[in-house]
């Protein structure tokens, strides 16, 4: 009887330790903010936005110049010339509207392109720390609704990335 009880206790202990899982958590946003070179992304995005803004201003100025010219000369031009200029102004208006519609998407794509190398470095560091310290799961606290327990592995990730 003692042998059976002892065997059962050993089996339960072995199974429970075999299925024990190790959890860790990080704040990816905080780590990303401290990565070297990340601040240059905002400078590049601001420059990209200014470039797009200048392009928009040029289109609006072209529209305004042609509209003013049409308004000034409308009484002296033939109907066919007037229609041609009105069509040209409408075409510019359509380009401006299309530009406004697409510009936010362009900015988001540029941000994603610039941040991708930093996200990849972070993910690689997370993978390395998880394997090295035998974590089954590493969660991002920014997307968790609740967490209690687990290890904060942010310092280990920063160390892998060379961040102090």
Note the topology.
Elements: H1 2-18, E1 23-26, H2 28-33, H3 39-73, H4 79-132, E2 137-140, E3 151-152, H5 154-161
Rg over alpha carbons? 31 Å
Beta-strand segment tally:
3
- Show unreliable segments: 11-17
Total number of distinct structural domains: 1
CATH architecture: 2-Layer Sandwich
The tally of helices reads: 5
SS class? mainly alpha
Mean pLDDT: 88
Tell me roughly what share of residues is in helical segments. over 70%
Question: How do you describe this structure in short?
Answer:
This protein is 73% helix and 6% strand. The chain has helices at residues 2-18, 28-33, 39-73, 79-132, 154-161, and strands spanning 23-26, 137-140, 151-152.
Descriptive account of the structure:
This protein has five helices and three strands. The radius of gyration is 31 Å and the shape is rod-shaped. It has 164 residues and is mostly helical. The protein has helices at residues 2-18, 28-33, 39-73, 79-132, 154-161, and strands at residues 23-26, 137-140, 151-152. It has one domain: Protein Binding, DinI Protein, Chain A (2-Layer Sandwich). The chain has a three-stranded parallel beta sheet, with helices on one face.
Question: What are the key terms here?
Answer:
single chain; 164 residues; mainly alpha; Protein Binding, DinI Protein, Chain A; three-stranded parallel sheet; 73% helix; rod-shaped
């Amino acid at each position: 009887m003692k042998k059976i009880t002892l065997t059962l206790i050993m089996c339960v202990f072995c199974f429970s330790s075999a299925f024990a899982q190790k959890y860790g958590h990080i704040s990816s946003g905080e780590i990303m903010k401290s990565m070297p070179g990340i601040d240059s992304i905002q400078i590049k995005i601001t420059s990209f936005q200014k470039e797009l803004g200048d392009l928009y201003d040029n289109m609006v100025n072209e529209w305004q110049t042609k509209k003013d010219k049409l308004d000034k000369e409308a009484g002296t031009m033939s109907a066919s010339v007037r229609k041609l200029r009105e069509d040209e102004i409408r075409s510019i208006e359509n380009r401006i509207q299309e530009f406004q519609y697409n510009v936010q998407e362009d900015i988001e794509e540029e941000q994603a392109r610039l941040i991708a190398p930093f996200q990849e470095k972070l993910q690689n560091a997370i993978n390395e720390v998880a394997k090295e310290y035998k974590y089954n799961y590493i969660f991002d606290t920014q997307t968790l609704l609740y967490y209690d327990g687990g290890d904060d592995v942010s310092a280990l990730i920063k160390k892998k990335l060379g961040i102090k």
